[in-house]
# Entry
Amino acid sequence: MATIGLVIYSVLWLFMALLFVRMILSWVEVLSPRWKPKGLVLIVAETVYTITDPPLRWLGRFIRPVRMGNIGFDVSYIVLVFAVWILMRLTASFLIVA
# Structure
């Protein structure tokens, strides 16, 4: 049972790391619009977006962007990070008990 919990925790940790990389890539795109990834960075970016897009799109159907004037903040990313973090804490607490 502890092995399954450790695998689940590791997968959640890896997904959280991918969300962090996605945040960095998003900021790079915002701060440098003409930047286009090439080579290994392109492969990493494509992998990160391929893995993180489906849950973010699913959440985006239910959570609309928060409007502040002409700017819309996508809150689904923050909700997903908190959900993964809570799942990681729950998994870790079960690992400690076991």
